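Comment thread on ticket #2218

A.B. wrote:
> Attaching the input chain for the structure job we discussed in standup.
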Amino acid sequence: MDPTPTEQRLQALVAERLKIGPRRVPLDQSLLEDLGLDSFDVMGIILEIEEAFAPVTISDKSAEELKTLREVAAFIDAQGRAP
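C.D. wrote:
> Ran it. Output below, let me know if you need it in another format.
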């Protein structure tokens, strides 16, 4: 399955932080455990995501629950369609 536009933007954003190619950023692996990011890295990425996808906001609780980029993308897309 090809990545959605939101997933592609997220991959590019994380890839830039990790200094790797976007295709090397997996959508279905844990940001913390599989990509080797720590909680500070993830919070920095969350802030960048909120900036890139404004007016989307990700609460601290949601940030803890969202484990993969695919989950983050679904969250963003759902918020974007909310009335």
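A.B. wrote:
> Thanks. Noting for the ticket: The mean pLDDT is 89.
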